[in-house]
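Teaching note: in complex prediction, the entire set of molecules is handled at once rather than each chain in isolation. The prompt given to students was simply: 'Predict the structure of this complex.' The entities are:
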Amino acid sequence: MDGNAIVFTNGKLQDNAAKTTHGLIRGSARYKVVGVIDPVHVGKDAGELLDGVHRNMPIFSSVSDFLDKSEEKADYFIIGIANAGGKLDPNWMPEIEASLQAGMSIVNGMHEFLSEKAEVASLAESHNASLIDVRKPKARGDQKFWSAEIYEVTCPIIPVIGTDCAVGKRTTARFLMEALAEKGVKAPMVYTGQTGWMQGNDHGFVFDSTLNDFVSGELEHAIVSCYREVKPDMILVEGQSALRNPSGPCGSEMLISGNASGVILVHPEGRTYYKGWDFTGKKIHSIESEIELIRMYGVETLGIALNTKLVNLEEAKAAQARYKESLGIPVALPVEEGVEELLTPLMALLG
Amino acid sequence: MDGNAIVFTNGKLQDNAAKTTHGLIRGSARYKVVGVIDPVHVGKDAGELLDGVHRNMPIFSSVSDFLDKSEEKADYFIIGIANAGGKLDPNWMPEIEASLQAGMSIVNGMHEFLSEKAEVASLAESHNASLIDVRKPKARGDQKFWSAEIYEVTCPIIPVIGTDCAVGKRTTARFLMEALAEKGVKAPMVYTGQTGWMQGNDHGFVFDSTLNDFVSGELEHAIVSCYREVKPDMILVEGQSALRNPSGPCGSEMLISGNASGVILVHPEGRTYYKGWDFTGKKIHSIESEIELIRMYGVETLGIALNTKLVNLEEAKAAQARYKESLGIPVALPVEEGVEELLTPLMALLG
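The expected output is the structure of the full assembly:
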């Protein structure tokens, strides 16, 4: 555990833009979340707001409100919302500065880096605080090429991929990790995004801020390091985007360079178009078609997890039953029922 | 035309490692190649050595040999060989320094940058020479995200992709560009590698040295810019790697984010394993399987180009006939017969 943190969502705690925060509320081994800064939801508990579970994470209107009222101290201020383009919003700066002045270090997952802003860097230095730019690419010489070492990994490697972005791949992987742990199965998650790092996963890399030539090698290196250092029973891999997302297809690296033993596929029931691209008319492909594509990469889909944000419980259950029947594989509703359904095919891989 | 250049291959002119040089010998609108530096092949003509066509490109043993004997002057020294990992070989430095001392600028396509080496940078400065690190990533703020603007392009977009890397995708695209030009069809090639830039193509980006998040956007931006500025009849796109190459799968961005109208698929006849990965036992997929995968991305394969380096003419002709029969699409032997065969389906797209 690195320390206590407050997470900044600036009025957007319930938006998809705050999915980093949602992940941190659900659980982080790196930071203990002691508050959320969000003027719209002041006075509520962030856990309750997310999924009805009270987690003792009060919401404050501002950093100064937190400093005044909280009994907890915070070591970190985490930017918990994303912006289109990964840019820092100038409106965030007063809260970032207030945190630095209170001696907090800043955790920033944007593509734009605080450490490159002279004024912010100087403010941080004068308060002995750090600027942690999670997406800052590794130094060139530290990046790995793919080497085929992946074939030395003898435990199952299971990417959790999706038919679209923002469907809950990381959350599903985390649920699987926890459910497997309860069965005594050590199945760490290799992270591939900044939130996964913030949640304290030990092995991984930030996929989207890696130079293309090194993506497969960094992925392999993360999986192989996890295998050698943790000696796991199974390795889960956080997926990114979707194989046919027009704005940035992704996934074949996980299937091929990551030598996947099988995948869990997350699908947003009721979503028609690729998220954010409704106006293009580009439809998300059916689960059946996605399974077929994954099979072309030599990998079988072991189970489905349904994101049910757009449907009610009855519709979710009906979809679950329908997919089970037509696909012949387990279909889970992670938020409503957990991921127990998916453990059977995963445990079967352990022999 | 930027100026005259000598190309450095250090004994490896006939190796695949010198494929940048092979491309430059075949033609560049940016540099006039006035010599090749290769101690193993001194005294020969580089064009003749490549494909039997004399191109008045004499081979010298060293930069000093070139300076002594050539009647031409050179403005540029191009590193024309690649190294595993894209590192600069210390053995190359004496020739690089000799070129700088003669006032030549250095064109470097490696992942390691000359401009970051203090001694080289100072030597360049004192001789008023430039260090052109082609793979140096763009400044963060200059990189584009995908925006769906690609759908405004109304001319056909044709990626030339392969079933493996190092099969002649760029060369095939170049042959197509030239053959189409002869028919009065303006079909520029959007480059995606450093050699494509060196050859003087106006639009493109270096795929493998782009941060993953911006790959689809930079590709789109290159195609859209080409469309707006050149008003072409068709746009060819240089492919990279292969959809299922384990060391770095690539191609779905070209198919989906690049909104491909169809593809030309290049296949290395007689090659069994993915290049460089024989020891893994990972076999290149059949053309049939690759066409099926490409179709899963919503794109049809319009024709095949066979790389015949590993087979004799008779075998090449037999394979050509066999694929034509089984696939029902044109199959070209670019080196032996040109790409005329492939023009029919391409011209048909022009309506």
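Point out the following to students. The CA atoms of residues 4 and 32 of chain A lie 5 Å apart. DSSP finds 13 helices and twelve strands in chain A.
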